């Protein structure tokens, strides 16, 4: 009986005791190593009431929330974190944000950083040392689950499709259960708006570019995209072109959205629709260390630890293949390098293209051929406009004098035939290196005579060059490139 009373007493005081508990700081997800760009949440738990004061190295932080969000970690976020509620201060949680990138890369193979709810993405995991023993984690709201990968042998690359996206923000990352290596995080957000704004890479890297693109689910017939920072327009582009912020700095941090004017794929009425995307915050973080590659293929890294080794990569059709240490860099191709340690590495260097003698020869031949064709067209146009008249007169006079009518006819036919044949040659060549649409334009312009044909050709070439540059520079510090490359696939998938 007495024991029961004691228990009752204890039960009455239990809530009071709990209130007096010292709070604790916990980190979600609980990563062993924190790399630049990681998304983290620090939570002050213990007492449920009262205002929270956050400290970093004993300095008071602005946030008064129970949960402190680090949207894109960077080395300057390192330090001792503690929180205080009702005068009770927690123990320190020590956070170290490394200066390098993780050794494995996780990218979006199919899909985008912003998807619609219930859709899913395909992710691609790559690790130079192979993926044996690797698993992934997925964080949906507060819940973290494991994703088992079916790994046979020890592949360096693997694609997998996680379950549908059912929360606002889903975070993926992978790690080696037997070692310390891990990948970067991939964050997929959902939006039920018809228009979504995609940013590559997100979070943005200080000093590097950020590409913004306005996409509309179900159609690629976009006539105009307007980009907003806060509530003011900062760029309007025609069609579905993207907008690139060349250099991200602290002043570019903010909330962005876009507005697209579009039509549905099989829409027959002429009026367009205009919709706005959700607003997205763009955090910026300091770039991890990057290796440098010189024109004569020397890899270096001034900020790196001296124990790091250099690794070279050669561009293949859809990825970068690591070269064995005994493989030479002599063959023609595009190369880049990184400095590596057992569980981290630098960002890749810029890429350097090396052309062998045979490819120089091929390029020269192609250039000469193009010059010849252009000269041919110009001469033909010139003759057509000016030269043909007198020539025809001459011939006719001569033939008239000789009075040989059939021969005159033959010559005229031959001349006409020659002209056509030249046109035919030109078409065949153009078809090879121009898109269907551009080719038609060139044909029409050429037929109208004058310098029009030449001008149009120049325009077409410029267009090609622009597209190439766009894709290339959009390559993020590590992963952005893949996502953007999938652009073409996406528009196919989206068509109902
Ligand atoms: C927490 O870290 C700060 C800064 O390093 C230090 O001044 C303080 O004494 C630490 N607090 C505890 C309880 O260890
Ligand atoms: C490089 O050396 C490895 C063994 O260390 C060998 O298996 C591989 O075939 C070599 N590669 C070349 C291109 O010689």
Task: Give an overview in words.
Strands 3, 4, 6, 7 and 8 form a five-stranded antiparallel sheet that branches. Strands 11-17-16-13-14 form a five-stranded mixed sheet, with no helix packed on it. The chain has five domains: 14-95, Immunoglobulins (Immunoglobulin-like, Sandwich), CATH 2.60.40.10; 104-285, Sandwich (Immunoglobulin-like); 302-354, no CATH class; 355-389; 425-496, no CATH class. Helix 4 packs antiparallel against helix 5. Helices cover 28% and strands 32% of the residues. The model is unreliable at 390-477 and 479-496 (pLDDT under 50). It has 496 residues and is α+β, with helices and mostly antiparallel strands. The chain is globular and about 100 Å long. The protein has seven helices and 34 strands. Bound molecules: 2-acetamido-2-deoxy-beta-D-glucopyranose (2 copies). One 2-acetamido-2-deoxy-beta-D-glucopyranose binds at residues 57-58, 80, 82, 91-92. It holds the Pfam family Ig_2. GO terms for molecular function: transmembrane signaling receptor activity. Residues 23-94, 193-270 form the Ig-like domain. Keywords: Disulfide bond, Membrane, Signal, Transmembrane, Transmembrane helix. The chain crosses the membrane at residues 357-382.
Number of helices: 7
User: Per the principal axes of the C-alpha atoms, what is the gross shape?
Assistant: globular
Write out the CATH superfamily name of the largest domain: Immunoglobulins
- Strand tally is 34
CATH classification, class level of the largest domain: Mainly Beta
Alpha-beta classification: alpha+beta
Helix fraction by DSSP (H/I, runs of at least 4): 25-40%
Please tell me the total number of domains: 5
Average of per-residue pLDDT values? 79
Radius of gyration: 32 Å
Largest sheet data = 5 strands, antiparallel
Query: How is the CATH topology of the largest domain named?
Result: Immunoglobulin-like
- Provide the CATH architecture of the largest domain: Sandwich
Ligand roster = 2-acetamido-2-deoxy-beta-D-glucopyranose
Approximately what portion of the residues adopt beta-strand conformation? 25-35%
Low-confidence stretches: 390-477, 479-496
* Distance separating the two termini: 73 Å
Signal peptide: 1-19
GO molecular function: transmembrane signaling receptor activity
Domain Ig-like: 23-94, 193-270
Pfam families: Ig_2 (PF13895)
